[in-house]
Amino acid sequence: MIHKLMKARDHHEVHRVATTLELYFDLVFVIAIAATASGLHHALAAHHFSEGLIHFATSFFCVWWAWMNFTWFASAYDNDDFSYRIVTMVQMFGAIILAIGINNVFEHNDFTMILIGYIVMRVAMAYQWFRAAKSDPERRTTCLRYAFGIIFTQICWTISALNFPYLFNNLFPFLALLELCVPAWAESANKTAWHPHHIAERYGLLVIIVLGEGILGATNAITPLFHSNEAMLTEAFPLGLGISALMFSLWWLYFKMPWGEFLHNERTLNNALVYGYGHLLIFIALTALGSGLELLADAVKEFGTMAEVVEHASNAHSISPLFAMTALSICTAIYLIALAFLRWYLDKDTNYSVIGFVLAIAATFLGVLCVYLGMPLQWSIWFTVIAPIAMISFYKTKPIG
Predict the structure, then answer these.
(1) What pLDDT sits at residue 311?
(2) pLDDT tens-digit profile of 193-233?
(3) For the stretch 323-355, what's the b/e string if a residue is b when 16 or more beta carbons lie within 10 angstroms of its beta carbon?
(4) What is the pLDDT, as a whole number, of residue 349?
(5) How is 9-41 classified by DSSP, letter by letter?
(6) Contact 269, 188 (CB under 8 A)
(7) How far is the C-alpha of 324 from the C-alpha of 377, rounded, in Å?
(8) Region label for 15, one of left (φ > 0), alpha (ψ between -120 and 50) or beta (otherwise)
């Protein structure tokens, strides 16, 4: 049908999985996430540290927030009619505009294009909430709060960008906080019918997407070494295998957690907000880790895999192995800390080894120490792998009733 009632989905529905439309929607965000990772890599490589990190955080927030709002709405109200699909297509077009504008943010501090794409997506999202409000009397107040909250925040974004462009970076945290307040305000009236296992699957799919950025970085890191037969055995294989082991262990650790069961057992507003918002650090860390692997590639091209801190490099924008390994270790540590916090908050019955956790986080910087002491990169990265492997061992999954 062209236009069906947008009734709330049953959050007890069995075998609820992501639809092909949701998977297609995610593909558009692959482009946007890749653009943020590429922009961060180039900014750090050019030693624009503060600007690069600020632009990365702001652009990634726009990408993540638009994706997250669509995901939670679809979990509660996806009716897959003609109107829903067309509006989703509009949101995807907005994501494309947003992805195109990310390069302008990093190069010219110009948020015009990224905001146009963002507002297109958000206005389309508001329309969906108005449809839901009309079809779901029980949650009408919640849906209207979402719709008007989105419209109000878009007006604030537009006014800030047009009238105070020179202050936009300073105003961004306040506008982002305003966006974050809308779901808490709306859901306090009456919870929407989001499906715990569906939400967990959707978040897991985005984790795989951002891990893909790390795989891309790994490919770039080892490609130059395969041009030499000698380096292939002594450098490319141990470095490539070490990077693969790191990314695989990060994947393993995330999917070791039964996120769907955590949300199902305590389907509360607080758990939804902590789970939903807490994943921002996970997504940011994994995306930035891909940039860190790109920096590792730069260090390999510039200095080889020997971990020597070159103080008098001829290139002013050279990336030392020590800097590349430090960036990689920081991203890994943020990911592990965010994951540990979410597990601790959502699973109150699990016993944790505090000493083991502290040692695991400290282990993320063993690679930095090894590089500082002169160990080649292809061996130093293996010490970073110790941290996620240790946490996989510490976190014993218990049966959940």
Answers:
(1) 41
(2) 999 999 999 999 999 999 988 787 778 767 777 776 666 76
(3) bbbbbbbbbbbbbbbbbbebbeebbeeeeeeee
(4) 66
(5) P-TT-TT----HHHHHHHHHHHHHHHHHHHHHH
(6) yes
(7) 10
(8) left
Q: What is the dihedral of CA 337, 340, 342, 345, to 10 degrees?
A: -120
Residue with tokens 């292809």: 378
Task: Pick out the chain residues at pLDDT < 50.
Answer: 306-316, 399-401
Q: Which two tokens stand for residue 253?
A: 């650790």
DSSP state of 397: P
pLDDT of residue 339: 94
Task: Check: CB of residue 375 under 8 Å from CB of residue 307.
Answer: yes
- The tokens for 60 are 């990634």
Lookup: tokens for 1: 């049908």
Token pair 């990310």 is found at 102
**Residue 227: DSSP 8-state:** G
The three-point CA angle 335-105-115 to 5° equals: 95
